[in-house]
């Protein structure tokens, strides 16, 4: 039987709030079994860029990453955010190890080809190094990935954290019984985005299409659900969406996705 693995992605809205992040990290550290944390940090990168007088440009939820922006996100994602999270987890008894996709050659990507838009130094993932990640996990370490990959030719690439999480889940799905959790500030996919009690508890492919047609799924939720179904279509067993309290075993208020 495959061993259980939890892959948890935490978004920028939680990361930028110190108290919320601390609460989340306590819940994450209490999660039993093998686990991986993937963090974003887009909001902090936008804030630092603005302080430095650099405008942030997003298209379809993805950051246009020129050389200057790549430097900023490397400092924010792989530096400040990643190392703070690792130190916080260490203080909670978790032997976390912070990684970008270049570390241990863990996530290989290629620069997104220019079509209508030139995204600059944005990477589309070619594969994850399941061997090295499995070794870290089985030696008791807790990998903490930031939103960066590399191309193997010395180039770091900005890669959306939701996509890193789903590709890690897909890559590790052959070795582990993987559950993928997308944690954000809402308690799940909501029928009415202003009403936290309107959580849709289960979404299958049919319901997903219906919610798309009705316009219930919008903004950041669109690429997020694309990633979720991509994972389910590639043998990831379970995908859940909700706020940090879904990591508690007795909380039923979150969204579970099925094919
Ligand atoms: N039906 C919906 N249910 C919940 N959130 C939704 C929905 N439609 C759009 N959203 C928006 O999607 C956002 C989450 O996407 P995003 O900001 O990309 O997440 P993350 O914090 O992981 O980066 C929510 O903050 C919410 O404003
Ligand atoms: C290519 C691309 O858009 N990368 C994202 C990576 C960070 C991220 O995904 O952060 P959240 O999960 O907090 O949104 C960005 O730079 O915003």
What does this structure look like?
By secondary structure, the protein is α/β, with parallel strands linked by helices. The protein has a single domain, classed as Acetylglutamate kinase-like (Carbamate kinase). The protein is 36% helix and 24% strand. The protein is built from eight helices and 14 strands. It has helices spanning 12-15, 18-30, 42-51, 67-91, 130-138, 161-172, 205-213, 221-232, and strands at residues 3-10, 34-39, 58-59, 62-63, 96-99, 107-111, 123-128, 142-145, 148-150, 156-158, 176-183, 202-203, 238-242, 255-257. The protein has an eight-stranded mixed sheet with strand order 5-8-2-1-11-13-14-12, sandwiched between helices. A two-stranded antiparallel sheet has the order 3-4. A two-stranded antiparallel ribbon has the order 6-7. A hairpin with a 2-residue loop joins β3 and β4 (62-63). α3 (42-51) crosses α4 (67-91) and α6 (161-172) packs parallel to α8. The longest helix has 25 residues, at 67-91. It is globular and about 45 Å long. The chain starts with a strand and ends with a strand. The model has no long low-confidence stretch (mean pLDDT 96). The structure holds adenosine-5'-diphosphate (ADP) and N-acetyl-L-glutamyl 5-phosphate. N-acetyl-L-glutamyl 5-phosphate is lined by residues 11-12, 40-42, 45, 62-63, 73, 122, 147, 158-161.
CATH superfamily: Acetylglutamate kinase-like
Small molecules in complex: adenosine-5'-diphosphate, N-acetyl-L-glutamyl 5-phosphate
Indicate how many domains the architecture comprises. Answer: 1
Low-confidence stretches: none
How many angstroms separate the termini?
23 Å
The spatial strand order of the largest sheet comes to 5-8-2-1-11-13-14-12
Instruction: Please report the total strand number as a whole number.
Output: 14
- What CATH architecture would you give? 3-Layer(aba) Sandwich
| Relative strand content | 15-25%
The helix/strand order is EHHEHEEHEEEHEEEHEEHHEE
Radius of gyration: 17 Å
What CATH first level would be assigned? Alpha Beta
What is the number of helical segments per DSSP (H or I, 4+ residues)? Answer: 8
């Amino acid at each position: 039987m495959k061993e259980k693995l939890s892959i948890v992605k935490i978004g920028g809205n939680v990361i930028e709030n110190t108290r919320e992040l601390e609460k989340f990290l306590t819940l994450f550290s209490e999660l039993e079994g093998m686990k991986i944390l993937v963090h974003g940090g887009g909001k902090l990168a936008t804030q630092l860029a603005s302080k430095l007088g650099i405008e942030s440009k997003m298209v379809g939820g993805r950051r246009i990453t020129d050389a200057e922006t790549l430097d900023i996100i490397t400092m924010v994602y792989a530096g400040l955010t990643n190392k703070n999270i690792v130190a916080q987890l260490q203080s909670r008894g978790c032997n976390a190890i912070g990684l970008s996709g270049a570390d241990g050659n863990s996530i290989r990507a290629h620069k997104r080809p220019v079509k209508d838009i030139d995204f600059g130094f944005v990477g589309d993932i070619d594969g994850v190094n399941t061997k090295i990640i499995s070794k870290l996990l089985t030696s008791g370490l807790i990998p903490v990935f930031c939103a960066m990959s590399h191309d193997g030719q010395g180039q770091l690439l900005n890669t959306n954290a939701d996509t890193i999480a789903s590709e890690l889940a897909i890559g590790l799905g052959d070795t582990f019984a993987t559950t993928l959790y997308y944690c954000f500030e809402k308690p799940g996919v909501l029928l009415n985005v202003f009403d936290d009690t309107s959580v849709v508890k289960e979404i299958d492919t049919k319901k997903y299409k219906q919610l798309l047609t009705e316009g219930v799924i919008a903004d950041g939720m669109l690429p997020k659900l694309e990633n979720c179904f991509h994972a389910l279509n590639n043998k990831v067993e379970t995908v859940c969406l909700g706020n940090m309290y879904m990591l508690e075993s007795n909380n039923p208020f979150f969204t579970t996705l099925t094919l």
